[in-house]
Amino acid sequence: xxxxxxxxxEVNRGLxxxxxxxxxxxxxxxxxPTCMKGCPVCIDIPAxxxxxxxxxxxxxxxxxxxxxxxxxxxxxxCPQESQCEGACILAKKEKPVAIGALERxxxxxxxxxxxxxxxxxxxSGKRVAVVGSGPAGLTAAAELARLGHTVTVFESLxxxxxxxxxxxxxxxxxxxxxxxxxxxxxxxxxxxxLNHLVGRSVSTDELLSYDAVFLGTxxxxxxxxxxxxxxxxxxxxxxxxxxxxxxxHADCFPEFDTPVKRGCRVVVVGGGNxxxxxxxxxxxxxxEVTLVYRRRKEDLPARAVEVANAVAEGVQFVCCANPVRVIxxxxxxxxxxxxxxxxxLDESGRPxxxxxxxxxFVIEADVFIEAIGQGPNPLLISMLPHLDRARRGNVVxxxxxxxxxxxxxxxxDVATGAATVIxxxxxxxxxxxxxxxxxxxx
Amino acid sequence: MYLVEEATQLADRVFQMWIxxxxxxxxxxxxxxxxxxLDETGERVPLTIxxxxxxxxxxIFMAVGKTTEHLSSMKKGDAISDVVGPLGTPxxxxxxxxxxxxxxxxxxxxxxxxAREAKEAGNHVIGIIGAxxxxxxxxxxxxxxxxxxxxxxxxxxxxxxxxFASTVLDELCKNQKLDCVWIVGPAIMMKVTSAVxxxxxxKTFVSLNPIMVDGTGMCGSCRVTVxxxxxxxxxxxxxxxxxxxxFDELMSRQRTYTDEEKASLEHYHHGGCGCCGGDH
Lengths: 442, 280
Ligand SMILES: Cc1cc2nc3c(=O)[nH]c(=O)nc-3n(C[C@H](O)[C@H](O)[C@H](O)COP(=O)(O)OP(=O)(O)OC[C@H]3O[C@@H](n4cnc5c(N)ncnc54)[C@H](O)[C@@H]3O)c2cc1C
Ligand SMILES: Cc1cc2nc3c(=O)[nH]c(=O)nc-3n(C[C@H](O)[C@H](O)[C@H](O)COP(=O)(O)OP(=O)(O)OC[C@H]3O[C@@H](n4cnc5c(N)ncnc54)[C@H](O)[C@@H]3O)c2cc1C
Ligand code: SF4
Ligand code: FES
Prior knowledge:
heterodimer, A: alpha/beta, Fumarate Reductase Iron-sulfur Protein, Chain B, domain 2, FAD/NAD(P)-binding domain, 5-stranded parallel beta sheet, 16 strands, B: alpha/beta, Elongation Factor Tu (Ef-tu), domain 3, Rossmann fold, 7-stranded mixed beta sheet, 17 strands, disordered C terminus, binds flavin-adenine dinucleotide, binds iron/sulfur cluster, binds FE2/S2 (inorganic) cluster
């Protein structure tokens, strides 16, 4: 077992000041910076990197914060390789500038040396309700507060942050960092009301009585495979497993009251970031972990670095296989899988997997975690009259994030389906700008 | 922080508590529940909303494990870290005709709010409250006041009818036309009692109590099988058509953490001092 799998402390330690400056000096400060095109919130990347090179770390932080209120989070969890870094001119020749690591460095530096707040416009007298405190809700709230509006965020859980808090584990995103960045949003004057499930604790009429509404309720509905034995004890959705550990601290049971089954043998099904997180958490709880994925290893949708971390931490991969049945009396005893063969490429260029008859095999297990995706949280959005939803249940929005209800906007996973932190933030920024125009027009 | 306004003991190990939680009180309806978390290290525990007055909601609970024992030691003026609700879909209350509202043990907690709404909807309301013996019986006065008729049962015959709620329900079914029945209690009691109305085809609701975490439809911990389909009790329920519920699966899933629950209670008694759960 490698050292890092014994605890939940952060795996990636970040850059030192010297290394950060050294890395920043590699940036060519391009006239037409291609890196920015790859960033969904259009951070002025060359500018903040030049400031690092000049050792003006506070200036770099201010530059970042103009476009991104959650830089320490993004610096850790953004898929930079397919965004800014993938688009960096140096990516073609050698290695791209490590933009993500630099973003993280600046944000961490600022947190240690004292945070400064961006300017806030004079009060507009308008009230905006934001539902959900994930990256989408936090970003919309911060933008709108800076523009002078009075913002109330409603969050159903007892802690803010959405997936940042309950989904992504500490070893990738320490919770004190999430809390610190949320404090920044609050410092802009945003009120966050925890323990308020909109649709139940707040009626839809109360919600619609605000001058504008932003829905950032995320994609929190876990999908199940619909196979035999799924309701046996020891079968978890990744959401439940991760929530028990990240939000409720089940890894510290019984100091914390919430338990979780620490399987000796854990099977995780799925291939995305969520599956990698579940597998790595299960590893830290002491289990032998096997990850079952229906396509080939090279098709895994998770970030390459997360797959590499999982491998390094001892997660076994069984690719081209899919669970068809959970075996057991009352509790899980094994997972029956079937081998898959790869057929024609589909629209996305990925092979279409299909079962090989009679190739069934069993993996012994006492815990089975399903990480096969999640859909928009239906509770509130199904209660709002005249709100158009698409086939997969997500809220239909135009380019500005406007829904089919006047004054109601949406962004993040509830509109796009499960996506990324930065896409949630990007869509929330656009919606916030549109909400501002809407409020000033009135 | 949510203030405890009143805390009293109703029966052996059964407690009643009024808590100020305006956002819950304002919207609470029959059949709904709330989730509390006592402090920083606490678990999220679901409890039925038993009554509402002004900004306050009432819970009634039995001290069975770590959280409910800790809760039972709290007094007026103490604060609970988190209360969220109302959660769940409200009871389907209409003008049915004659309805029966049945509570077993601590499940009686849920009955006044259902009986009252059913009464206000214009139903003839029959109540049945049952307990192991007369010392475990709660809310008798309140139910007497709300219901048109009230039956009491005790397993040992120390009060009311000697037997179970199902005994009385069986008699009622034989002698008159019932239009709707609610049953709230331990899973085994709901299973047995709802079997009584099945041959008569009487619409019967039970309030399921699987293990929950968030209570908002996000984790799937509370999934139950109803009519062969997987449902999330926290948002699709907790009330379901009794004759469609897979009770055996529910009971099995409720036992998932039996060992851990024991460990947690032991830790509470021997580990922490209990009065300062937050300092660990
Ligand atoms: C385990 C996991 C790992 C991930 N890893 C990465 C990663 O490495 N990099 C990356 O970029 N992305 C990652 N993602 C995806 C990313 O986290 C999401 O795309 C992003 O969080 C979406 O943000 P959001 O604000 O739309 O929704 P969420 O983060 O889901 O937040 C929604 C919030 O709304 C609240 N809410 C819902 N309904 C209501 C209501 N009715 N009333 C009040 N509150 C409500 C919820 O409690 C929640 O707090 C990961 C996701 C998961 C699950
Ligand atoms: C929608 C809903 C409404 C509920 N309403 C009430 C209520 O009004 N009053 C009340 O006393 N209880 C109610 N319960 C049950 C209550 O949530 C549990 O008793 C509570 O979680 C026990 O917490 P604990 O930490 O004290 O005990 P734990 O240590 O968690 O458990 C101790 C013992 O309690 C029993 N238990 C645990 N969880 C449940 C459960 N979900 N349902 C039934 N028994 C359980 C088991 O026998 C277990 O061995 C409700 C449950 C649900 C889902
Ligand atoms: S494209 Fe790369 S080299 Fe050019 S400015 Fe952006 S980070 Fe620097
Ligand atoms: S308790 Fe999590 S989905 Fe119901």
